[in-house]
Each structure stands twice: as C-alpha cells, then as structure tokens.
Amino acid sequence: MSEFMGDNDRLRLEEPTPDVRAVITDIEGTTSDIAFVHEVLFPYARDYLPPFVRAHAQEPTVAALIEDVRTEADEPDADLDRVITILEKWMDEDRKATPLKTLQGLVWEKGYIDGDFTGHVYDDAVATLQAWADDRRALYVYSSGSVAAQKLLFTYSDHGDLSDLFSGYFDTRIGGKKKMRSYKAIAAELGELPASLLFLSDVGEELDAAANAGLQTCWVARDENTQEKARMSERHPVVASFEDIELI
Ligand SMILES: CSCCC(=O)C(=O)COP(=O)(O)O
Ligand SMILES: [Mg+2]
C-alpha cells in the first residue's frame, strides 16, 4: 500500500495496492521548475535551433529529423526554409512533436557543455529521489523532452551529475504523455504490473492517462493554484513536494 501525505492532510489510498516497485517521474513542473524550461531552455532553442538545422542539414541524423518534420507536417515537398518555419511555429506552440524535441536536445547539448545554463532540479526532488534510490527503488523518467535532453538536464544539473539515479528514460517515441497506451507500453517494457508503478506529474491529463492504464499516480502541485485544481479533480493524491510522498 502506498501512502501520501499532503500539506495539511493525510491521504491513504482506499484500495489495497501493491508496493511501489518503480517510480516514473515527469520533469517540467515536477522535478524541475517550469520557468527553467520556458525561460531558459526554450528561448535558447528558439535562437539556436534554426542555425543548427541549417548547418547540419546534410548530416544523416539531422537529415532524417528534417524528413520526420515533413512527414508530421504532411508537407513532403517542404524545402529547408519551410521546415525551419514549421519548427519555429511548433516551438511557439510548445508542440510535443518528436522531431522537434529531438532537435532541441541536440541544440541544448552545446548550452550545457559551454556552461550557459545548468539543469534545474528542485532540492526536495533531489533529496527524495536519492533516498528512494538508496532504498533500491527503481527510478525512471518520462518526459516529452527527448531522452538525450533528459539525460543532459540531470547530468548537468544544479546539483551536479544526477544521471546515475535513473535506471531508464522514456520520451514521446513510446507515445504521448496523455495517452493511456503509452503507460501500458512503459509497464510492458519494464516487465512490471502497471499497479506496481507510481507516476508523478504536474499535469492532470497525464495522471488520468496513467491511472487509466492502471498505474498508481501522484499529482505534484507546486503552487497554490495547481494544488486547488488538483484537489478538485479528486482522482489523484496531491502533494506540494516530493518530500510529502512516502512509499510503502
Ligand atoms: C527534458 S528537456 C525539457 C523539457 C521539455 O522539452 C518538455 O517538453 C517538457 O516536457 P515534460 O513532459 O517534462 O513536461
Ligand atoms: Mg510536467
């Protein structure tokens, strides 16, 4: 059985549930500040992704991603200028398109290596993830950011290299985060019963999809507005910080 303790309340899941064998966490808004993603990473990609794509368009990896953009946009004849315009539009819309997320990861690599920024991870997330890892819980990441981008954020984090905490990473190549089948696919890939997995996120639709797939869920709602919205849904335990989550 899993027990979650919120700020002022103590919530015990009503149904007996299996012990949590693995925790799967979202990044943006959950382990890491939304502002870091939207005010540091996204503007950096907005500036450097177009020249990056132009400079590397002939290289096999980038050429394949350009082709993926044409396919996803249903514009098979789009020239390079048009592909870049599509990518800029997707960035402005925060579209979770796999070729865009992959390209962003390639662009951010230089920013992390050059020391332009470090990956933000909340203190409570670091301390709790470390405690769970010490307790031999398997930890995984599931984010719309590419696996390469996820590894960069945790390798070049504010707290140093945290990448060893995680046993694996999932991105949109396994499916969108609001789709139930993505969580079933993750459980199958991990060889675990969905009910023995706990998914942490700040987005209700993602948690609903995970719960529909049979996973245990917890809504990490870091500000009061989100906490109010989260509590109103009444579907998921709600915490303000990783330190409020107790795995049993
Ligand atoms: C992990 S890289 C930065 C995050 C990102 O690109 C993104 O789209 C955020 O998605 P999430 O699923 O972590 O909310
Ligand atoms: Mg999120």
From TrEMBL:
- Indicate the transmembrane segments per the record: none
What EC number is given for this enzyme? 3.1.3.77
- What is the UniProt remark on how the cofactor binds and its stoichiometry? Binds 1 Mg(2+) ion per subunit.
What keywords tag this UniProt record? Answer: Amino-acid biosynthesis, Hydrolase, Magnesium, Metal-binding, Methionine biosynthesis
Quote the Pfam families the UniProt record gives. Answer: Hydrolase (PF00702)
Among InterPro entries, the record links this protein to: Enolase-ppase_E1, HAD-like_sf, HAD-SF_hydro_IA, HAD_sf
**Top EC class, one word:** hydrolase
Catalytic activity entry: 5-methylsulfanyl-2,3-dioxopentyl phosphate + H2O = 1,2-dihydroxy-5-(methylsulfanyl)pent-1-en-3-one + phosphate
| Essential cofactor(s) | Mg(2+)
Give this protein's Gene Ontology molecular function annotations: 2,3-diketo-5-methylthiopentyl-1-phosphate enolase activity; 2-hydroxy-3-keto-5-methylthiopentenyl-1-phosphate phosphatase activity; acireductone synthase activity; magnesium ion binding
Q: What GO biological process terms are annotated to this protein in UniProt?
A: L-methionine salvage from methylthioadenosine
Its pathway?
A: Amino-acid biosynthesis; L-methionine biosynthesis via salvage pathway; L-methionine from S-methyl-5-thio-alpha-D-ribose 1-phosphate: step 3/6; Amino-acid biosynthesis; L-methionine biosynthesis via salvage pathway; L-methionine from S-methyl-5-thio-alpha-D-ribose 1-phosphate: step 4/6
> Member of which family?
Belongs to the HAD-like hydrolase superfamily. MasA/MtnC family.
Q: Whom does it interact with, and what assembly results?
A: Monomer.
What this chain does, per the entry, is described as: Bifunctional enzyme that catalyzes the enolization of 2,3-diketo-5-methylthiopentyl-1-phosphate (DK-MTP-1-P) into the intermediate 2-hydroxy-3-keto-5-methylthiopentenyl-1-phosphate (HK-MTPenyl-1-P), which is then dephosphorylated to form the acireductone 1,2-dihydroxy-3-keto-5-methylthiopentene (DHK-MTPene).
Record protein name field = Enolase-phosphatase E1
Protein's gene: mtnC
